[in-house]
């Protein structure tokens, strides 16, 4: 009997699959990490094929852990890291370049130039500030830097997608090229008022409409699984960007309800109902979801580095060997000792939107005490409220 719901959670550092019963309890979970590539300072890339491989591997593992098979799954939903950009050959399904990740800011200079002439127009149409965080300049970069890409795009031989679209395309064996409004609204190409790909923005970024996915609602049957790893077709019935999905999952379904998610970054979203609210303080106006023909909007403030700071302490500063080690190091001192860390490892997000700003350490203690106090700050001691 099809008594279970499956969720694919494709994140910045790992892919997960969860299976829920009718009471909303998690009955199985599988997770796999994948490679992070940093070709140059400020560049962050993923291998789209590795993302797909880890996601389908967790799907089969989660089924096996729960002693279930595809006939037990009533429907499948997708949630995903947002803005991360993939372009692939429409006919072969092969990516033409690595996925450019949301954290990547190789196009920051392009964005600074755009701010001089198009800031108000882009914000009015998309609800977004001009930033390398979003997909538009990433798409343009691939088209301009991969040999033959622009010609293929103009001929209709390429597909663009954020990660939801890439997974859906592969799950349906290249039959479906869709996205939902929550993801489309993060591209800087989608008009959040008309709910369409905007012709003026496409012309500005020189992006052919032919490569873009069709925008469906956040909850409908887009297609069915058609892979050799799943022996029975499962309806794929929901898609949303990870932060909007978290807003819905925390039951923020009425205007004024707020959630904050701590993950790779930190993202605070407030549901604003069926009206887009323009921020006067550099927050983003974005689409939360579209369900039953009705669009809900949200205000968002994002910090690019949250949990990723712990990864940096381990892999960059080599202050700890494993993430849990930060607890032991922090416990060696009573407080943060006047040490404050601004983890602007990929610049600052809302409300500053400064990709040039480096991380900073503020301290007045002897060197031998600094790392422990730094750990204490990361664990819980923070700057006083402004």
């Amino acid at each position: 009997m099809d008594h279970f719901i499956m969720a694919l959670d494709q994140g910045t550092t790992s892919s997960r699959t969860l299976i829920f019963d009718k009471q909303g309890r998690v009955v199985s979970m599988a997770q796999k990490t994948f490679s992070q590539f940093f070709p140059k300072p400020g560049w962050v890339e993923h291998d789209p094929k590795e993302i797909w491989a880890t996601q389908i591997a967790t799907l089969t593992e989660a089924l096996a852990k729960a002693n279930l098979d595809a006939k037990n799954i009533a429907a499948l939903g997708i949630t995903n890291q947002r803005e991360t950009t993939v372009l692939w050959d429409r006919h072969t399904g092969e990516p033409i370049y690595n996925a450019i990740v949301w954290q990547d800011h190789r196009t920051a200079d392009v964005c600074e130039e755009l701010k001089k002439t198009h800031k108000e127009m882009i914000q009015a149409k998309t609800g977004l500030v001009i930033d390398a965080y979003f997909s538009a300049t990433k798409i343009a970069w691939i088209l301009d830097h991969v040999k033959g890409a622009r010609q293929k795009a103009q001929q209709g031989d390429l597909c663009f997608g954020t990660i939801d679209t890439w997974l859906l395309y592969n799950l349906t064996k290249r039959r479906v090229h869709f996205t939902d409004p929550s993801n489309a609204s993060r591209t800087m190409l989608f008009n959040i008022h008309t709910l369409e790909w905007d012709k003026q923005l496409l012309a500005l970024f020189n992006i052919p409409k032919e490569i873009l996915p069709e925008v469906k609602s956040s909850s409908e049957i887009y297609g069915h699984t058609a892979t050799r790893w799943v022996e029975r077709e499962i309806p794929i019935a929901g898609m949303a960007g990870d932060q909007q999905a978290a807003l819905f999952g925390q039951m923020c379904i009425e205007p004024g309800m707020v959630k904050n998610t701590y993950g790779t970054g930190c993202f605070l979203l407030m549901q604003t109902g069926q009206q887009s609210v323009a921020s006067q303080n550099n927050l983003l106006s974005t689409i939360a979801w579209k369900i039953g023909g009705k669009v809900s909007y949200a205000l968002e403030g994002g910090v690019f580095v949250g949990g990723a700071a712990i990864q940096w302490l381990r892999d960059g500063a080599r202050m700890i060997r494993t993430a849990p080690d930060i607890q032991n190091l922090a416990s060696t001192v009573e407080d943060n000792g006047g040490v404050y860390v601004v983890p602007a490892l990929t610049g600052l997000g809302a409300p500053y939107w400064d990709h040039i700003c480096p991380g900073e350490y503020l301290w007045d203690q002897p060197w031998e005490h600094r790392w422990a106090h730094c750990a204490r700050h990361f664990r819980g001691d923070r700057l006083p409220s402004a």
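Confidence is low (pLDDT under 50) at residues 360-368, 382-386. The chain is about 30% helix and 25% strand.
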